[in-house]
UniProtKB/TrEMBL annotation:
Bilayer-spanning residue ranges: none
Organism placement in taxonomy: Eukaryota, Metazoa, Spiralia, Gnathifera, Rotifera
UniProt keyword list: Calcium
Organism from which the protein derives: Adineta steineri
Protein name: EF-hand domain-containing protein
Molecular-function GO term, any one: calcium ion binding
Keyword check for Transmembrane helix: no
């Protein structure tokens, strides 16, 4: 059973839970909570020990990506340059992205080059913070009302935008519901990074198309 041909019948039979257990995730809720704790801790001082980190250059790069690749306008650029918003409150959104990225590296298993049909995004997401910034920019495209969250209806399209179209919609929606621990039908960016970390672990074991 691959992530590509996983269907309704497999979801109803609980096979997604079995697949998660095979990659070491016995409790998605605990996984997500640990992920969120690590992301929050990393975002407090995300650049300590990063000798090659240049905040001005990174912000400029992130802004350029959004303006040139995603055409998201000045309001989105303001978020990356510390203008505030729903995702980070008074914190710098870049710090939040960096924190989530560091948690991703720790929790994803970093199955780079696993060759399961995952495409460049799953292979490369652990390599640079710019990949997380791309993920955040696409995420904001699907945040239609600006509340810092996306819905289950968006998740399949989001994964397609990120080059993860090989993932069955039943896997995508099943993981969304599992990660949505408060059952309000929405995920914030850190939840989405946790979901992607789970997908990366599944991809290493079960592959895509």
């Amino acid at each position: 059973m691959s992530l590509f041909n996983f269907g309704r019948e497999q979801l109803q039979k609980g096979m997604l839970n079995q697949m998660l257990q095979q990659v070491g995730i016995d409790d998605v809720g605990s996984f997500v909570q640990d992920f969120r704790n690590e992301a929050a801790q990393a975002s407090v001082a995300p650049h300590q020990g990063d000798d090659d980190y240049d905040e001005d250059a990174t912000l400029q790069h992130a802004s350029g990506q959004q303006a040139n690749l995603f055409s998201m306008g000045s309001s989105m650029l303001n978020k990356f340059s510390g203008g505030g918003g729903h995702d980070g409150g008074d914190s710098n959104p870049l710090d939040m992205v960096q924190g989530a990225m560091k948690a991703y590296k720790m929790f994803s298993g970093d199955q780079s080059g696993s060759g399961g049909g995952g495409g460049n995004f799953l292979d490369n997401i652990g390599s640079t913070v710019q990949n997380a910034q791309k993920m955040y920019a696409v995420y904001k495209q699907f945040d239609k009302n600006g509340d810092g969250k996306i819905t289950v209806e968006d998740i399949e399209l989001y994964l397609q935008e990120m080059g993860l179209g090989f993932v069955s919609p039943y896997v995508a929606k099943g993981l969304f519901q599992a990660v949505d621990q408060n059952h309000n039908g929405t995920l914030d960016f850190t939840d989405l990074m946790a979901l992607t970390a789970i997908l990366n672990k599944l991809n290493g074991q079960f592959g895509g198309a």
